[in-house]
Design goal:
By secondary structure, the chain is of the alpha/beta class. The chain has one domain: Metal-dependent hydrolases (TIM Barrel). Helix content is 41%, strand content 12%. The strands form three sheets. A nine-stranded parallel β-sheet has the order 10-9-8-7-6-5-4-3-11, sandwiched between helices. Helix 2 runs parallel beside helix 14. Bound molecules: zinc ion. The site of zinc ion has 6 residues, from strand 3.
């Protein structure tokens, strides 16, 4: 494998650094979607991609037969079920098409301030490129204590469904930031949200739930943690020594209650459902709640640090319930000045490198490089890879109807 200098950054995959620098100084509710630590595009990307191509070619050559041949990255459709793309830039469309990637484009509530703009960009992108950018909408938390709030939210979400939204995102500010008038935290299972959840279930729309944080957010900082760089700088997300913040477990239990109260609501848990540290705990929930799914965005690096046989067995056992995602963000409209060519090109390279490294980890064999570490690739069976990388997302979000911009006509399983 080629060697090259890597540096680990804690900003979201968005290289929109001005926004991220600003966001670091802003209240929690205005942060971006997820914590992502990733690397700067390698200086010698060419060497990396060449080496990766050779590696994939070798693994193909070593495969026992056509039925078990390792999938070739470009040849297989991949759905990135957790993307934030908010600019109509042909360079991104070209990249996604060349890599054979289609996204689920997720709107996030950033204090409600940019929500209207974000929705407009997302639906415009979807209208122009329905196969690349199907939309998950979201809603504002502002004025949630006022009478008529849930009716207003339901009306606004209904409008997004008419424009083709496949589901609705809720973010970790529910459970970690938002409070009731009496000062207690408004948890994900708060009765306030029940009419909204019921409306989603009735409308057969997905609840896309990024709730809680990795467990490490509640633990002392650890230099060896995959999230160290993030929590060492994003202090407001680091809850160790802050007993007033609800525990990780209490948020998981609150999420369980959503699925108990709304058994026909399809819930996708973002970021391995915030249970990447305990796949057994996630497995118990997948067993208990048939309406629960999980995607792996921004946590592949955490999975890659765990024993490969355990992760592999988990992905095979729950092959119908897990979705691939990256959680890259590109939101240049946040900036007064759009990002220049250099930053734009760097982000494009970072996207490609990240998608290729993830694929080499899940679908490849032997040792592979992932975010600067040598890890054991999972070498998942072809049928599992097909489900994980696109078939499950197609089914859960009804992507085929979305790609054709047709109203959903078939019942979700
Ligand atoms: Zn995200």
């Amino acid at each position: 494998m080629a060697t090259f200098t890597r540096r680990v950054f804690e900003w979201p995959l968005s290289l929109d650094k001005d926004r991220n620098d600003r966001a670091r100084q802003e209240p929690l509710a205005r942060q971006g979607c997820a914590e992502i630590e990733t690397m700067k595009p390698p200086t010698h990307l060419f060497l990396f991609t060449t080496a990766l191509t050779l590696l994939l070619a070798q693994s193909c050559a070593a495969a026992p037969g056509p039925a078990e041949a390792a999938p070739v990255f470009e040849a297989m459709l991949k759905v990135d079920a957790h993307s934030h793309m908010f600019e109509d830039d042909p360079a991104f469309h070209v990249l996604f098409r060349r890599l054979n990637i289609q996204t689920v484009n997720i709107c996030v509530n950033v204090g409600g301030k940019h929500l209207g703009r974000m929705h407009e960009i997302a639906f415009d992108l979807y209208r122009q490129h329905p196969q690349l950018y199907p939309v998950i909408s979201t809603f504002s938390l502002q004025s949630c204590d006022e009478p008529g709030y849930t009716e207003k939210v339901i009306a606004s979400l209904g409008q997004t469904f008419e424009r083709g939204a496949l589901g609705v995102k809720i973010w970790k500010e529910i459970g970690l930031v938002l409070k009731r008038p009496d000062g207690s935290f408004r948890m994900p299972d708060d009765a306030l949200w029940d009419p909204i959840y019921a409306y989603l279930a009735k409308s057969e729309k997905v609840l896309y739930a990024h709730l809680a944080e990795p467990l490490e957010a509640w633990l002392p900082l650890d230099k060896d943690s995959p999230h160290f760089h993030y929590y060492s700088r994003q202090k407001q997300f680091h809850f160790y020594g802050k007993p007033e913040i609800p525990s990780h477990e209490s948020i998981m239990v609150a999420r369980d209650r959503i699925m108990e109260k709304h058994p026909t609501l399809v819930v996708v848990g973002a970021h391995v459902g915030s249970l990447e540290h305990d796949l057994d705990a996630l497995a118990r929930r997948l067993d208990r709640y048939p309406n629960f799914y999980a995607e792996v965005s921004a946590r592949t690096k955490t999975l890659a640090r765990q024993p490969s046989e355990k992760v592999r067995a988990f992905l095979i056992k729950y092959q119908d319930r897990l979705l691939y995602g990256l959680d890259a963000g590109w939101q240049p409209y946040f900036n007064a000045l759009p990002p220049g060519e250099e930053r734009r090109n760097a982000h494009l390279k970072l996207l490609e490198t990240s998608y290729r490294e993830d694929f080499a980890y899940y679908a490849g064999a032997g040792q592979t490089s992932h975010q600067g570490r040598q890890v054991e690739a999972l070498n998942l069976p072809r049928a599992v890879i097909e489900k994980f990388y696109h078939q499950n997302a197609e089914r859960v979000f009804r992507l085929k109807e979305a790609w054709e911009r047709k109203p959903a006509a078939t019942a979700r399983p």
